[in-house]
Amino acid sequence: MDIGVLRRDGRTDPFFDGTAAGRLVVRRCEACDRWFAPDASGCPGCGEEELGWAEASGAATLVTWTILPKEPPAFLALVELAEGPWLHARLDGVERADLREGLALRAAFEHPDEGESYVLFRPWTERGSVR
Amino acid sequence: MGTSIVGLGMTELGRVYGRSPRRLAADAVRLAAADAGLALGDLDGLLVSHGMGGSPGIELADTLGLRDLRLLALVNSYGATAGAMVSYAAMSVLNGSATTVACVFADAPLKPEQSAGSAYNRSSREWYGFGGMTAALGLRSVNSHYALAAQRHMARYGTTSEQLGAIAVATRAWASGNPLAQMREPITIEDHQASRWVSEPLHLLDCCLVSNGAIAVIVTSAGRARDLARPPVHLWGWGQGHPGHRKERGSDFGLATGAAASGAAAMKMAGITTADVDVCELYDCYTYTVLVTLEDYGFCAKGEGGAFAASGALGPGGSLPTNTGGGQLSAYYMWGMTPLSEAVIQARGDGGQRQAPSTDVILVSGNGGILDHHSTLVVSPHEKGA
Ligand SMILES: [Zn+2]
């Protein structure tokens, strides 16, 4: 999919270093043993503003979704990482009939010719990716 | 002692060009004062709220030539601001720190030769950071965020698009009786279903309008209100709810909102229950927002908002007249001032063709952010306890 060109903004180096290497790196507060989305601005538990970064498993479940009327349709979602935080995400390899609360997903990484690598979420079973 | 809304000022609303938000705000305050039979110099308080299209701030006092104010503030809890401002004005009057307070909202996001949607949208070729990635992947508009909320409600409770459509149809039916409404042509469920997807499950007819303009109200004591030009609209209760949804496991985002806490607080203060409410004027940025607000206020059980809407309760002739002026879906989008202005019109009996049969107790809601902020007012033509 052509999404334009992604650039770093000075606060996202660990995240985009992660996507380049096929790893989902998100925010984490070690003190509180709590995970956050990569854009989290701090930990409400202890007030820490400089959250650490940590590699998430990439396993997720579908919370809710919306479909943009494009050709082909764009499946956008809130997904819940196995570690707890929710991410706004784009689904890949899904059809309308697949969509349900709790659908098992797994992070997948795209490496465009220009700009940063990014993450999509695809349906996933124990035997591996459905599609 | 109680407090009352005694003035309502509304500029032209909709595709109104050539006036800045500050000018629109000033015009609305002048209109509200004139409506109340007050001089601008009678105001000793001013609360200001603005939308997306530029900011009238507290410099509005200078624009209006107001002097010796005892209360002046810019207030922002997004779409919940109108109700919040009125409650702050009422509390200031009650505790004696001001006597006569104007509350105004102005916005001018529409520009000539620009589509309504683009006023609240962004697009780009290069994207920066994590937020840029999310936007690049397609999540760019408030519409999509509310679509995520609505879809979660649908998946969990079986709410249908046709049930959301019933809200759009009822609201439009009310709008057809409002000369100020931007959209007055009646619609059917079929029209709703046939309208284009904006962000599935939201059709175009699930989404509010975009409008330029300004609306102001004036709050004073119930005692003073008796001597003014128009019938007072008495403030019986208010509340707010800011649930602080965190986007993480266990969140009830989309399923429940701050309306639950806000509505309960406002109704408790007013000494009423949902059974006493004659009319609802609810913040309807989307049809779904009305549905979830009705549930959270307790007009029906959680998850039954769809069936309640589809029962015909909300439209003309229904048991709970709701958004009697056409709301933000069909009349005009002035954030929380849309439901509040219609509540004042109804309480005064000025609804004309759309006047609700009974208006003894009117419930008014505001909703801001992505269901992050909520305010409630209970208003009545009668003094509380009278
Ligand atoms: Zn912490």
TrEMBL record, chain A:
<protein>
    <recommendedName>
        <fullName>DUF35 domain-containing protein</fullName>
    </recommendedName>
</protein>
<dbReference type="InterPro" id="IPR012340">
    <property type="entry name" value="NA-bd_OB-fold"/>
</dbReference>
<dbReference type="Pfam" id="PF12172">
    <property type="entry name" value="zf-ChsH2"/>
</dbReference>
<dbReference type="InterPro" id="IPR002878">
    <property type="entry name" value="ChsH2_C"/>
</dbReference>
<feature type="domain" description="ChsH2 rubredoxin-like zinc ribbon">
    <location>
        <begin position="17"/>
        <end position="51"/>
    </location>
</feature>
<feature type="domain" description="ChsH2 C-terminal OB-fold">
    <location>
        <begin position="53"/>
        <end position="110"/>
    </location>
</feature>
<dbReference type="InterPro" id="IPR052513">
    <property type="entry name" value="Thioester_dehydratase-like"/>
</dbReference>
<dbReference type="Pfam" id="PF01796">
    <property type="entry name" value="OB_ChsH2_C"/>
</dbReference>
<dbReference type="InterPro" id="IPR022002">
    <property type="entry name" value="ChsH2_Znr"/>
</dbReference>
UniProtKB/TrEMBL annotation, chain B:
<dbReference type="InterPro" id="IPR002155">
    <property type="entry name" value="Thiolase"/>
</dbReference>
<dbReference type="InterPro" id="IPR055140">
    <property type="entry name" value="Thiolase_C_2"/>
</dbReference>
<dbReference type="Pfam" id="PF22691">
    <property type="entry name" value="Thiolase_C_1"/>
</dbReference>
<keyword id="KW-0808">Transferase</keyword>
<dbReference type="InterPro" id="IPR016039">
    <property type="entry name" value="Thiolase-like"/>
</dbReference>
<dbReference type="GO" id="GO:0016747">
    <property type="term" value="F:acyltransferase activity, transferring groups other than amino-acyl groups"/>
</dbReference>
<protein>
    <submittedName>
        <fullName>Acetyl-CoA acetyltransferase</fullName>
    </submittedName>
</protein>
<feature type="domain" description="Thiolase C-terminal">
    <location>
        <begin position="248"/>
        <end position="380"/>
    </location>
</feature>
